[in-house]
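input
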Amino acid sequence: MPKLVNNTSLSIRKKQDFLFDFYNLNNFYRPIIGNVAMQLYINLLSEAINYQKIGGQMLLEQFVERYQLTYEEFHAARKKIEAIALIDTYYDEREQAYHIIVNPVEQYQTFIELPQYKSLLTNKIGVDGIERLNYLYNAQPYIEGGAVAISQPLTYLVDQINNNDVRFNEIYQKIAQIHQNQLIISDDCKKIIEENCNHFTTNEILTFLNNSVIYANNGQVFIDQAILIEKIRLHLLTSTKIKANLQVYRNHAIFEKKASEAEIQKVFASYHLNCEQYLYSITKTNLAEHDLELISQLRHKQLTDAQINMLIDFTFFKSKIGRLSHSFIKPTAQTVLNMNLNTLDKMLSYWDYDINKKVTKKTDVDEVEEKITTWDA
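output
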């Protein structure tokens, strides 16, 4: 075995990602290895964490100086923590470098079941000390009063899975009956339901399925997988808690060439929220399903949330009627796509020089809607 000398290179790493367990280290490792060896383990673990963050290695000379150890203390303590498997040490003769791997502290039950470890610990703390540790690690928390244990056993989860299987089968039977038992539900659709709808009510799941039914020309009745996914997604959006107090910064002067560049950027910053949050922050009302479907259509056309939010803001600016006009926003979005207005700056510039000119004479958004009708939903 090569001897560690003061110019030996040290590379110190953790075996795996684990949390430092001082409680166990102090309770049943320290009596065997002593304070100096325990401190060396802590120092090596600290250096291993440093390595994870910044990499690199050091010389043994630097290590013992940093932690105020003599070479003799380091060697003696190192051997002790190697022997009890707190570290593993490897030597690269070509590089004259040592690699130290720091291992996690064992749990008490695992430690005490090893005969040699138990013997060493008994030799240091006696039978009374072992009994004390057994009590510490096996004692149940004290519960005051006449409380009784009501925690569910593992069989509860097994029963829940079995009950879910029964519930889903009943749902499939009900939806089939609604469609005169002609409905085909593919295994893929069942998988979508069972993996995503466990926390929904039976009626909610029936609604998803019923709204996804397609009657084909050849007489087949089936669940459209894409529609099913979209119905579930829309329901999740409406049931997800939106931050009620989140404020968005709006200033319609940007659409009238009356805003500074700094003001424009403040407005643009709010456009980078997700569309559902942005629209809710304007209307302060729960989003209707037709508005959620509109957002979904715009996203499917590869518009970003920031672009969609700018379209929403622009539509409110033009309409001045307090609602989101779908028949205005759709053709405007199509123009954004056709003209390749792929940034907020481009959209704003185009509206400044084109759309504004076309609609400035209109006093009501409905007049504009009569003129612009192109939309491939």
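quick obs: The longest helix spans residues 22-54.
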